[in-house]
Amino acid sequence: MCLAIPGKILSVSNQLDETFRFGKVSFGGIVKEVNLCMVPEAEIGNYVLVHVGVAISVVDEEEANKVFSYLKEMGEVEELKEKQFSTL
């Protein structure tokens, strides 16, 4: 089963233009580089849902924390430590 994991944007870096961006996203202290091209409105401090290394939507902090706590209970968070997201 594929899941989208909520994380908080720590920093944003522009690559080719304003649309094609990458950012550092924290998933409960585990930081990964994520493609932000599908969420051009996302800013530092926002929470995003990330699927296979790409942020697919912006979510509020309460929803992100709720989903992340469920994932922890299911033991899905440990996989983040082992897997690296690929970037374009």
Give a written overview of the molecule.
The chain is α+β, with helices and mostly antiparallel strands and 88 residues long. Helices cover 22% and strands 39% of the residues. The chain has helices at residues 61-74, 78-82, and strands spanning 5-14, 21-27, 30-35, 47-51, 54-59. Strands 3-2-1-4-5 form a five-stranded antiparallel beta sheet. A hairpin with a 6-residue loop joins strand 1 and strand 2. The longest helix has 14 residues, at 61-74. The radius of gyration is 12 Å and the shape is globular.
Please tally the β strands and state the result: 5
Structural class by SSE content: alpha+beta
Figure out the total of helices.
2
Assembly state of the chains shown = single chain
Q: Give the CA-CA distance, first to last residue.
A: 23 Å
Low-confidence stretches: 84-88
The percentage helix is 10-25%
Task: Give the strand content.
Answer: 35-45%
Average pLDDT confidence is 84
Shape: globular
Element-by-element helix/strand order: EEEEEHH
Major sheet details: 5 strands, antiparallel
Radius of gyration: 12 Å
| Sheet with most strands: strand arrangement | 3-2-1-4-5
